[in-house]
Specification:
Elements (H helix, E strand, L loop, with lengths): L3 H12 L5 E3 L5 E4 L2 H12 L5 H10 L3 E3 L3 H6 L9 E4 L8
Antiparallel strand pairs: 1-2, 2-4, 3-4
Length: about 100
């Protein structure tokens, strides 16, 4: 059975307001669209803190990797909303599994 952090994270992404965090379309990764709201509103529902950096450290500990945004797209639109997104993936962390 999966560690509690991973089970909580899966449930968090599965049930979160999609404007804050959601699965990527392919279900192979997830994206935190609004890290500030995610930390203030979502993390405390599942963990005893509201620190986004701590959450990211835990993800890294479990082998998640941040997906870098395409630099060409960001350069074309520096103020692009998606440039603030944090995307993460893990080969075994998949929507519906």
């Amino acid at each position: 059975t999966a560690p509690i952090f991973l089970r909580k994270t899966y449930h968090m992404i599965d049930t979160c307001d999609t404007a804050i965090a959601t699965w990527n379309e392919d279900g192979l990764s997830f994206v935190v669209k609004d890290p500030e709201k995610f930390a203030a509103e979502t993390i405390p529902q599942f963990f005893k803190h509201n620190n986004f950096s701590s959450f990211v450290r835990q993800l890294n500990f479990y082998g998640f990797r941040k997906i870098k945004s395409d630099p060409l797209r960001i350069r074309d639109a520096i103020n692009d909303v998606e440039s603030k997104y944090w995307k993460f993936r893990h080969e075994k962390f998949i929507m519906g599994r």
